Amino acid sequence: MSQKRNFLALGVMAKYWDPGRVKTRLAMSLSSSEERTPSLLAEVARKLNLGESTDAMNLAAMIHQRFVCHLLCQLSGAGDQRQLVATPPERLRRFEATLAERSISNWEVIDQGGGDLGDRMKSWFAGLLFPVPRSRAIAGEPLSEISDASETADRYRGRSCVLIGADCPLLSHADIENAWAQLQQNDVVIGPAFDGGYYLIGVRRSGADRDPLMSSPVTETTLAGLFDGIAWSTETVFEQTLTAANERGLSVAVLERRHDVDTAADLNRLVETIQRQYPHGHPLFQNSIP
């Protein structure tokens, strides 16, 4: 009997695009730059085909919406399961409505949950890497007493889960496939950002199709260690996470370093990159906001 390939899951973390509540750092940077270059906001809106916008907060929210919808559209066929890991919870229906309006399918919209960024990422990975069998969840039975063979077998199937944000909009299907490929030989994959954070993190829990007693170095405890105690929003997030993985004996693959889009300079770099690498156009420029 051949071993099953890993179950492949992809998550995109995103906040709803309410002006003033998302991409505020970008908005402040755009506003500051506008004082020096009065035509900047109009120029950015024109280049991204966002219509006319003279307000930095509105423009930043529209840019975030563009990034999110573009990624969901481009990655709608990736893996076995795709989840938009969204916040705040009262905006989940708005997310779903936007996806329906833009004919973006194959995504389940779920709540990020509470806590800091690390808590929310940890919760997403734990829910997929260590799923609670349906029969146990309903009846409260211990795992050892579950008799549903197919359900038990699926619990022991290997799982490779990759989570990204929306600040690196040029990530492609091939990039996600590469991350999953790295997880065939490693427990963790990380895509570092130039600002010291990371744009992608993936974790694999080894399968045990042939031997249910076979152990994986990724446990609920070692998983938690990747996210607990990290000083989020600092220049050392990637290094802290890499150290945490190494201290727990987890093998790590590191992807190429990329730029997030957090400032006006980052946005200008993105526009120049697209114009240089895609002279005949790119979907990020062509999609319109409904």
From TrEMBL:
Protein name according to UniProt: Glycosyltransferase
InterPro entries, per the entry: Nucleotide-diphossugar_trans, Trfase_1_rSAM/seldom-assoc
Xref: Pfam families: DUF2064
Superkingdom per UniProt: Bacteria
